[in-house]
Amino acid sequence: MELSGPKARSGQAALEYILVFVALIAVVWALGLFVSAARRGARQTAEMVTSDYP
User: Fold this and answer.
1) What are phi and psi of 4, to 5 degrees?
2) What's this model's pTM, rounded to 2 decimal places?
3) How is residue 8 annotated by DSSP?
4) pLDDT tens, 5-53?
5) Alpha-carbon distance 10 to 15, whole Å?
6) 3-state secondary structure string across 9-53
């Protein structure tokens, strides 16, 4: 039995939407990690610049 009708195409489209959604979530998560690391680095730099240590 071969799946080549509209039902197969509908399943393929749903799978593609799910894959794109998962990829989008992964990109947003990775971007969040980068922003978090940048904020942490900026905070550490500001603390070092404003410290009283000569």
Assistant:
1) -135, 10
2) 0.66
3) H
4) 666 677 889 999 999 999 999 999 999 999 999 999 999 999 988 887 7
5) 9
6) HHHHHHHHHHHHHHHHHHHHHHHHHHHHHHHHHHHHHHHHHCCCC
